[in-house]
Amino acid sequence: MTDTRRRVKVYTLNEDRQWDDRGTGHVSSGYVERLKGMSLLVRAESDGSLLLESKINPNTAYQKQQVNFLKEFCAFSQTLQPQNRDAFFKTLSNMGILPALEVILGMDDTQVRSAATDIFSYLVEYNPSMVREFVMQEAQQNDDVSKKLTEQKITSKDILLINLIIEHMICDTDPELGGAVQLMGLLRTLVDPENMLATANKTEKTEFLGFFYKHCMHVLTAPLLANTTEDKPSKDDFQTAQLLALVLELLTFCVEHHTYHIKNYIINKDILRRVLVLMASKHAFLALCALRFKRKIIGLKDEFYNRYIMKSFLFEPVVKAFLNNGSRYNLMNSAIIEMFEFIRVEDIKSLTAHVIENYWKALEDVDYVQTFKGLKLRFEQQRERQDNPKLDSMRSILRNHRYRRDARTLEDEEEMWFNTDEDDMEDGEAVVSPSDKTKNDDDIMDPISKFMERKKLKESEEKEVLLKTNLSGRQSPSFKLSLSSGTKTNLTSQASATNLPGSPGSPGSPGSPGSPGSVPKNTSQTAAITTKGGLVGLVDYPDDDEDDDEDEDKEDTLPLAKKAKFDS
């Protein structure tokens, strides 16, 4: 069956400016050696003869319309359902959209390149793994071709899609670098390990990062290395500073996420020293980007990085920038102090010793923050530990055992608490933990003996009071209210009786001043209220039932120990 989708009608313009019908044929494209390029071919439907042969010129308006149409088509695909959108991008991939974009990105037309960049961004957003797989296959094919050409002593230049993206980012002519920012975001997505797949047979992260650091990283760092050959940036204009800031942002991202590959690259290529040259830039944002790059490295607390920093004395550009900034309170000042504060708080011993030994004289006069004095104190503590290792070991032992308790002791205490009856708790008996039972017997018996002596003295005084009260012939009623366990309220009332012998208010009686249990005398009827536990009540003064309640009052005024004996 004839493929009607590629069936075309061919007309040619004759010398008289008229259109001649050449017939119907089928169109195809291919490389024509005679024309030295990709050409459009139309062969006759009847006999297969060549009706048209024309080299494809990428600078034509027709080519621009095709790219812009494809761009609008990709934008429209964002409104499709997920399964339809997947089918659309898979169709584009099968038809060779990525090799076509590689050709279009190599054109000189900025509008065509901009449209191709938008199409590439849609593809990366849809499936970054598809783009990574393509560029790795492309690199493998180029390596195979390079080996054959090397055997034939022919040199070739590898042009990879991802390197074209980096080059367009570096060579962006826009003063605001709008296109470069977009391309940097695409590169960041491609090198982000979070969206890389890992299967049982292969790991995309390992393969792609190995490819990227081998074939692409030198292209990304080329403007940085070219601009930092001296102690100051070779070019310090605004557009160059913006470009280097973008490069540093991507490198900082790599430091955070590509621990192994970026570490080897930074140390082998001495990247950090080159980056710190930018601390001398007149553009504060670029100097802060360089400082952020170093801060990210220090934040990893990796001794490989630390030894590299100390060996190359890479704190010197930072200290110079700090001193040149003077007493101005700005972002540069705060960022540098924060970096040294991080070293102090995290107690990075190697960097602390390096900073104090080499830069203390330049920093000792800074007294508006305690960061550098704190670093000096840390350094002195380290020296003290080195000089007296026994002291350091003793501190570690005390630190490890200061608040530790035996787990078995805690279990015993909990079990004793649950096994204790509430009646025992109401009687005021405290639960003694097994750990407390290990105390010295002398330390325990001493307070117990004192308590018993006080108890005996109190009992003897109470006996004397009761005896005198019985002999007096008249007693004020005493009421004792026990409201709850552990909370007792004694309400004692006394009626004043003037000049009655044996009364509590008379001289020599138990209620008189100076005698035990005395209450101050008043002209009117008074009441002495003794409260324990914050409970207060009102007491009536009965006159007729005093003799009947005398025995009960005596029993209530007895101590708890004696009351328990009488009850038994």
From TrEMBL:
<feature type="region of interest" description="Disordered">
    <location>
        <begin position="473"/>
        <end position="568"/>
    </location>
</feature>
<dbReference type="Pfam" id="PF04802">
    <property type="entry name" value="PP4R3"/>
</dbReference>
<feature type="domain" description="Serine/threonine-protein phosphatase 4 regulatory subunit 3-like central">
    <location>
        <begin position="59"/>
        <end position="381"/>
    </location>
</feature>
<feature type="compositionally biased region" description="Acidic residues">
    <location>
        <begin position="418"/>
        <end position="429"/>
    </location>
</feature>
<dbReference type="GO" id="GO:0006974">
    <property type="term" value="P:DNA damage response"/>
</dbReference>
<dbReference type="InterPro" id="IPR016024">
    <property type="entry name" value="ARM-type_fold"/>
</dbReference>
<dbReference type="InterPro" id="IPR011993">
    <property type="entry name" value="PH-like_dom_sf"/>
</dbReference>
<dbReference type="GO" id="GO:0005654">
    <property type="term" value="C:nucleoplasm"/>
</dbReference>
<comment type="similarity">
    <text>Belongs to the SMEK family.</text>
</comment>
<feature type="compositionally biased region" description="Polar residues">
    <location>
        <begin position="520"/>
        <end position="529"/>
    </location>
</feature>
<feature type="compositionally biased region" description="Polar residues">
    <location>
        <begin position="473"/>
        <end position="500"/>
    </location>
</feature>
<protein>
    <recommendedName>
        <fullName>SMEK homolog 1</fullName>
    </recommendedName>
</protein>
<dbReference type="GO" id="GO:0072542">
    <property type="term" value="F:protein phosphatase activator activity"/>
</dbReference>
<dbReference type="InterPro" id="IPR051137">
    <property type="entry name" value="PP4R3-like"/>
</dbReference>
<feature type="compositionally biased region" description="Acidic residues">
    <location>
        <begin position="541"/>
        <end position="555"/>
    </location>
</feature>
<dbReference type="GO" id="GO:0030289">
    <property type="term" value="C:protein phosphatase 4 complex"/>
</dbReference>
<dbReference type="InterPro" id="IPR006887">
    <property type="entry name" value="P4R3-like_central_dom"/>
</dbReference>
<feature type="region of interest" description="Disordered">
    <location>
        <begin position="418"/>
        <end position="447"/>
    </location>
</feature>
